[in-house]
């Protein structure tokens, strides 16, 4: 392999820190102790809030907890699925999730929202505060509380939080933690309405409402916000982009504010509420798509740098490395195949190329047993395509 290509690979792995481990216990890092204190305070406040309901409302709390866990598991599977390149260490992901579920929710957001609500009532009156409190407090307080989480992760793992994609994915898990606690909180509120006379009915209604509203919720908001923080701060792998950073920080605040103020904005008109809701969803999904479009070229560039020596050695082709760099490139590569089995095998090759990229990251570019096995798997898949193509041609000729 070319020395220049190997050096470029080494530089890419150094810049991204792909494959490195996360160490949570850092007694010499003041942020570690701040994290423990903030999350500990959140856990204590959550216990103080829910413990009085554990007797009479025990069944409702259990059901709400189970539903919250299932919801979190489904979202976790999805977020890990779209983590296309080198996946973040599980420990780092859990650290972000716990921040969102405890510190951001119970230590900061609940107190901050209550304080702003009280202030709005005193300044503008109770009626105005009821209409606009949610839309003019939660977006600022909650997005800031969750956004602090990515700064904490940057301080705990500066070599692992490097790109806008890292901000998007870790932000999504921070938001998922917040959403899980919020869903549980609202489910309990629903179960306790009417002095608990119809716990199940109230709980089911709350769960259904939260499941619907979670389509545009905290994982999306926080993913955008945290990617914006990465752009705003800049890292060795991500040059500072102030305009992008500000845009991605403002966007979720605006989306969140409109979502929480739909009834006030529409004046109670259900038709206008529907229009505002659809418009906000479209804007939110568009903003998320733009964020991934902005982040993609940087990650794709690093993938090519890591896999370029494999092209020279004949393990991968240029088209396969290009396909590994993005969903759009992968679709084009797969659709160019002649037969369905070949398309299926091409998908496997792209996945195997990404696995090879991950193994190379772990081994720091060395030929570890995992790297050798990944290369052998790619060769096997390619021979399978060739055999399948020849079989198809032979059948057609016959």
Describe this structure in words.
This protein is an all-alpha fold. It folds into two domains: about 280 residues, no CATH class; about 80 residues. It contains 15 helices and no strands. Helix 4 runs antiparallel to helix 5 and helix 6 packs antiparallel against helix 7. The C terminus is likely disordered.
Briefly, what is this?
By secondary structure, the protein is an all-alpha fold. The chain is built from 15 helices and no strands.
User: What count of helical segments does DSSP give?
Assistant: 15
* SSE topology string: HHHHHHHHHHHHHHH
Using only CA atoms, what is the Rg? 24 Å
Number of domains: 2
Number of strands: 0
Q: How much is the average pLDDT? A: 83
Largest sheet: none
Q: Topology, please?
A:
Blueprint (H helix, E strand, L loop, with lengths): L2 H14 L13 H21 L7 H25 L7 H35 L1 H31 L7 H29 L6 H15 L4 H16 L8 H19 L1 H5 L3 H43 L5 H7 L2 H9 L4 H24 L5 H29 L1
Helix pairs in contact: 1-11, 2-4, 3-6, 3-7, 4-5, 4-6, 5-6, 5-8, 5-9, 6-7, 6-8, 8-9, 8-11, 9-11, 11-12, 12-13, 12-14, 13-14, 14-15
Question: What keyword list fits this structure?
Answer:
elongated; mainly alpha; 398 residues; 2 domains
